[in-house]
Design brief:
Layout lengths: L10 H4 L2 E4 L4 E4 H6 L18 H11 L14 E2 L8 E2 L1 H6 L3 E2 L7 E2 L17 E3 L6 E3 L6 E3 L7 E3 H15 L9 H9 L10 H4 L36 E3 L7 E3 L15 H10 L13 E4 L2 E4 L59 H21 L6 E6 L4 H10 L8 E6 L11 H17 L4 E2 L5 E2 L3 H5 L2 H14 L10 H9 L14 H11 L4 H10 L1 H6 L11 H14 L4 H11 L4 H7 L1 H8 L8 H7 L1 E3 L3 H19 L7 H9 L14 E5 L5 E3 L4 E5 L4 H20 L1
Parallel strand pairs: 15-16, 19-20, 20-22
Antiparallel strand pairs: 1-2, 3-4, 5-6, 7-8, 9-10, 11-12, 13-14, 17-18, 21-22
Helix pairs in contact: 9-21, 11-13, 13-19, 20-21, 22-23, 24-25
């Protein structure tokens, strides 16, 4: 190179090395670009990318008089732009001495003493985390080789990894790998000397780069193929359909040849099985869909069935299972109403009369007070929501994909009022207000998230590690959906574990996980064996058997005393429950920041724990009674009607009615649950001289008839509610 004098050909470090025979000139592109005494005075096709040959000759002559402050040789064409700084250096020498070169605006250069630095809080400069590009650990240190994301609190990178990523992704695809922020991230990386080329991504420029993806492997590889038409025969939707290995995808089998009765079953080839067996890695089972239609005593109804415990992968296992889209089969019943269930399937509770003294337990009373406080906090956040509407077209049979599409559309804004339109679902619950559709949509969405592969565990769930979901930024979208649901009147998730909630509120570095947080049965068993080892020899034997797992977790160390097992167990728990899911957790936290929800969680952790970590209490007669405000023009009607109303609620609760409390709420508001933010407007009751009850969902008003006897009142209530909801479901 005529400017630095080196023969190195390293495009990643020095830019492309170009030779121009006609000008007798060889130059590194970055050496030319960063030289202090030359500008692009020509067009792009003139000289060398706009640098005129005459200007390049002049710059060579100017640099020949300057000595490099690093290698002490002549030809230092780059100078520090800091005032009063006289240092000059070659571009490769500057890289070696950790100078900063800004590939933007005036292409400034800063020496090692005056270079820009990132500012860190003292508490950030401790520990280490995964570089989200190479997945190796990066120490949190204020050094040249380490860079911190400006948009994510816990995202740290190796400078070299970032530079390779920028060169590959180009200006259109280079962004934060955690939250997908582009503008703020690129601005900070350019300031810190990362070169982002103004071109399309390398994978987009390669001709026929995706050609191989169009070919599916179609061959039966089992030892004994039963298909008479040959190993290459494939007939979809039959027993001769070819199923590919769930791990490598490069081996296949006919369903019949491997005794599989359904396409939903997983299959692994012999090569993958042997690899997993030898490595000791733990396999991952496919997760069940969200819910299915079940028949109870001849009546079709949608019941939420908890999925079986699904073991998770340990560190290093391949994780290529996509987030599944559940199919909600809406039949004759809404998913929240057990209207047609026989009495034997109802849960009945004996309660004291509503008008008597309320003997609630201290715990339930405290939980109710917390939820009242949450309601007020969420109402404060709802002030941000504008009257401008955004319509989401939702397919109830594919709730996740349609919700994801709606939330990612360009016109979607969390501060707009959301309207939901259910489409392509013949049997979905039909309601007469947009509020009812929105309530139903958010309920289906929260149920899907609870049973999706983004979370693991039985009751209290933690985040799982799904690399495909990380790549598609699904953890961010899940956090965003939960935040939007809370502020826009949807249900709370109610399935967070205390550990997950503490990680979100207090930070993962301040959380100590427990054995109950480990969803992988094999990992949990390994930890138990270590924890309950009763001798040093048995402990060492156990560690020898699972040494590969411990090495992958970074917990493999010499054990010389039995008491060392306690520290080891704690380290394994911290790795498996917290460190392993650092990327999903940070992305999930960013999503929860939508509409300021995470900030409120951090300020009021106790009250938000009541709705995020606990399912809402089952509706009681007292709860429904307190929910409605009775308004009537006649005190006589109000007093008599209130007695009938409260007596009817007690009958419904004790199972002496064909409807449920959820049905009553659905009849009036279009929702079978009480949202954490409450109803808007607040539900009211009016007693009027009408024949049958009327549920006004636009105003959340229940208009009740004035009757002479309680039995007349009860008959009219049950006939109207049952008939109305039955027609809607048909």
């Amino acid at each position: 190179c005529v400017l630095c004098g080196r023969t190195d050909d390293c495009p990643e470090k020095y830019g492309e090395k170009r030779t121009y025979v006609e000008y007798n000139l060889t130059v590194h592109y970055y050496c030319l670009l960063m030289s202090s005494g030359i500008w692009q005075r020509g067009e792009e096709d003139e000289g060398v990318d706009g640098f005129l040959i005459t200007d390049i000759r002049k710059e060579i002559n100017r640099a020949a008089k300057l000595k490099c402050n690093i290698c002490k040789k002549k030809g230092a064409s780059i100078g520090c732009v800091a005032p009063k700084c006289k240092r000059s250096y070659h571009f490769p020498c500057g890289i070696q001495r950790e100078c900063i070169f800004q590939f933007m605006e005036d292409f400034r250069s800063y020496c090692w003493e005056h270079r820009p630095v990132q500012k860190f809080a003292d508490k950030e400069l401790r520990g280490a985390s995964q570089c989200t590009i190479c997945l190796d650990l990066v120490e949190h240190l204020p050094v040249y080789a380490v860079l911190k994301s400006p948009c994510c609190k816990n995202a740290w990178f190796h400078r070299e990894c970032l530079q390779y990523q920028a060169l590959s992704a180009g200006i259109f695809f280079f962004r934060c790998t955690v939250c997908n922020n582009k503008d703020k991230f690129q601005k900070e990386m350019l300031r810190m000397g990362i070169h982002i080329p103004e071109r399309d991504a390398s994978w987009e420029l390669e001709e026929n780069a995706y050609q191989d993806l169009l070919h599916c492997y179609q061959h039966c590889d089992v030892k004994r193929c039963l298909c008479k038409k040959g190993r290459d025969y494939n007939e979809p939707d039959s027993k001769w359909e070819i199923k590919r290995c769930q791990y490598c995808g490069s081996r296949g089998t006919h369903l019949a040849c491997s005794s599989m009765t359904s396409w939903e079953q997983n299959w692994e080839c012999m090569e993958c099985r042997s690899i997993f067996a030898k490595s000791g890695k733990y396999s991952k089972q496919k997760k069940r869909p969200l819910a299915t239609s079940e028949k109870t005593n001849g009546t079709t109804c949608l019941l939420e069935e908890p999925p079986p415990k699904s073991p998770r992968q340990s560190a290093g296992s391949p994780c290529n299972i996509l987030l599944q889209s559940s199919k909600i089969m809406c039949q004759n019943l809404s998913p929240c109403s057990p209207l047609e269930l026989p009495a034997s399937n109802r849960v009945t509770m004996s309660l004291s009369p509503v008008m008597s003294n309320r003997n609630l337990s201290l715990r339930h009373k405290h939980l109710r007070e917390q939820r009242t406080e949450v309601c007020n906090i969420l109402k404060e956040l709802k002030v941000q929501v504008k009257t401008k509407t955004t319509r989401l077209n939702i397919n109830a049979e594919n709730i996740w994909s349609s919700a994801l599409k709606g939330f990612r559309q360009r016109i979607f804004s969390p501060t707009n009022t959301i309207e939901v339109n259910f489409s392509n679902c013949k049997n979905t619950l039909k309601t007469n207000t947009s509020a009812a559709s929105k309530h139903h949509f958010f309920q289906l969405l929260m149920l899907h998230l609870q049973n999706s592969s983004l979370f693991e565990g039985s009751s209290g769930k933690n985040l799982s590690l799904d690399f495909q979901a990380v790549k598609e930024n699904l953890y961010f979208e899940a956090g965003k959906m939960i935040a939007v649901s809370l502020v826009h009147g949807g249900p709370s998730p109610g399935f967070f574990s205390k550990t997950l909630f503490s990680c979100l509120v207090h930070g993962p570095e301040n959380v100590e996980p427990a054995l109950e947080d480990v969803a992988d049965a094999d990992v949990a068993q390994t930890i138990k064996m270590i924890k309950y080892a009763n001798s040093l020899s048995s402990l060492q034997s156990i560690l020898q058997d699972c040494c590969e797992f411990l090495a992958a977790a970074g917990c493999l160390r010499p054990v010389t005393d039995l008491c060392d097992k306690n520290v080891l167990v704690n380290d394994i728990l911290i790795y498996h429950v917290i460190k392993r899911i650092a990327l999903p957790l940070e992305s999930f936290r960013q999503g929860l920041k939508t509409l300021g929800v995470l900030e409120k969680m951090q300020v009021h952790p106790d009250v938000f724990s009541s709705i995020l970590c606990h399912k809402p209490e089952r509706l009681s007669a007292e709860t429904v009674c307190d929910l409605f405000t009775i308004r009537s023009s006649s005190n006589v009607n109000k007093l008599k009607g209130a007695g009938f109303w409260m007596g009817y609620l007690q009958d419904v609760e004790s199972g002496e009615s064909v409807v449920t409390l959820e049905d009553i709420l659905l009849f009036v508001t279009g929702s079978c649950y009480i949202p954490p933010i409450g109803f808007d407007p607040e539900p009211t009751i009016k007693f009027l001289h009408i024949r049958y009850p009327i549920g006004n969902r636009l105003r959340n008003c229940l208009e009740l008839p004035v009757t002479k006897t309680y039995q007349q009142f009860k008959n009219k209530m049950e006939f109207t509610i049952r008939s109305t909801l039955g027609v809607e479901r048909e």
